[in-house]
Design a protein that fits this description.
The protein has one domain (4-297): 3-Layer(aba) Sandwich (Rossmann fold), CATH 3.40.50.1820. Strands 1-2-4-3-5-6-7-8 form an eight-stranded mixed sheet, with helices on both faces. The chain is globular, with a radius of gyration of 18 Å. By secondary structure, it is of the alpha/beta class. It is built from nine helices and eight strands.
Length: 304
């Protein structure tokens, strides 16, 4: 059964996001809405500016001291490819730090000023440097989930180390918008209409082929992909991107854990300190990733 706070957060998303976005394709307005997050991150995390592979970003680590090596995690923020930043997603990255990960969040370039594949190039550059320290996981929400999958595609193509595992929160895996939920959930989704998503895709691709697996990872060859954990909301328009992704990956022999959550809106993990389902989603993903990274890196087990 969904919590009362899940219902309240869904209502808040309808008022603060969907109503403000309306049907306007204006990217400046959309970006302003995406940057309005006022939720406070967990106080258990410390944030430090940094860079990896020449890409600026933010390190997030637990405040507590420990001599045990922490698993590493690259977090790719959402924001429809046109907005978002390490700052807007601190509630999520702090939660992963609370789960005892050492996190880097690249401040990748945004469309339309820097269209496809600029964001992916930044992510690959950061990952190339990050992966030199040993096995690590990658996590992304929404557009960041798209980039996490595209990173795996590109890492395999370039012969780079592949993430030990990936967690994907409502990933935008199909920029051709072929999922039935784009139509069936257009009124139920608390944040987006198909028209708004179409304007974001247009700004990001800038004429590039949406069938390119780096743009629509659902088109990729999934053989050899690392284990995936995928969470999406039952009511969101991107629901079937997650379902189709899980089906395609499983058909290729990839180990996948898929969970569809009732009531909550898109990217509900942002409400880590408010909505119980947000905390549970992150904790489930963290447990999955910690196990895979520690196994790959032969790190000792430690409770989060």
């Amino acid at each position: 059964m969904a919590s009362l706070r899940a219902y309240l957060f869904d209502l808040a998303a309808r008022i603060r996001v969907k109503a403000r976005l309306g049907h306007s394709p204006d990217i400046a307005r959309i970006r302003a809405v995406f940057h309005q997050n006022t939720l406070h991150p967990s106080p258990s995390a410390v944030f430090d500016p940094g860079e990896l592979g020449g890409v600026p970003g933010e390190w997030v680590r637990p405040r507590k001291k420990t001599d045990v090596a922490r698993p590493h995690l690259l977090y790719l923020h959402g924001g429809g490819f046109v907005g978002g930043s390490p700052f807007t997603h601190r509630t999520i990255t702090a939660a992963f730090a609370r789960a005892d990960f050492r996190v880097f969040v690249p401040d990748y370039r945004l469309a339309p000023e820097h269209p496809f594949p600029a964001a992916l190039e930044d992510v690959v550059a950061a990952w190339t440097a990050f992966s030199q320290e040993g096995p690590a996981a990658v996590v992304g929400d929404s557009a960041g989930g798209n980039l996490a999958l595209a990173l795996i595609v590109e890492a395999r193509r370039r012969g780079l180390p592949v993430p030990a595992a990936a967690a994907l929160f409502s990933p935008a895996s199909d920029l051709l918008a072929r999922g039935a939920s784009f139509r069936s959930n257009r009124h139920r989704d608390a944040m987006f209409t198909p028209g708004i998503l179409a304007s974001l895709i247009t700004a990001y691709l800038a004429g590039a082929d949406p069938r390119d697996p780096r743009a629509s990872p659902i088109e990729a060859d999934f053989s050899g992909f690392p284990p995936l954990v995928i969470h999406a909301a039952e009511r969101e328009v991107l629901r079937d991107d997650a379902v189709a992704l899980a089906e395609r990956a499983r058909a290729a022999g990839v180990r996948v854990e898929l969970a569809l959550w009732p009531v909550v809106p898109h990217a509900w993990q942002l409400a880590d300190n408010y909505v119980p389902e947000a905390r549970r989603s992150i904790e489930m993903a963290a447990h999955f990733l910690r196990r895979e990274v520690r196994t790959a890196a032969a790190l000792p087990e430690e409770a989060a």
